[in-house]
């Protein structure tokens, strides 16, 4: 599994836990909905800016997202 795929899994999980649509997340983060879709499908690489924007919307620290991504990668042995 690639980092982008793990990041997408984590973002989608947090978005669904908050009952948010991709459109809502995109609007709140100041991003495009199609970009959120591509991130969730592992088709785009998130920048550090994207990580901070999304974590702000989710009201969590960016390192929490990174830790979850790491867990998925280690579980799937990168």
Task: Give an overview in words.
This protein is an all-alpha fold and 78 residues long. The chain contains 5 helices and no strands. The protein has helices spanning 3-17, 22-29, 33-40, 48-58, 62-75. 21% of the residues are buried. The mean pLDDT is 95.
Number of helices: 5
Number of strands: 0
Element string (H = helix, E = strand): HHHHH
Percent of sequence in beta strands: under 5%
Oligomer: single chain
Helix percentage range = over 70%
pLDDT averaged residue by residue: 95
Structure class = mainly alpha
Largest sheet entry: none
Q: What is the rounded Rg?
A: 11 Å
How far from one another are the termini?
5 Å
Question: Low-confidence segments, ≥5 residues, pLDDT <50?
Answer: none
Indicate the topology.
Blueprint: H1 3-17, H2 22-29, H3 33-40, H4 48-58, H5 62-75
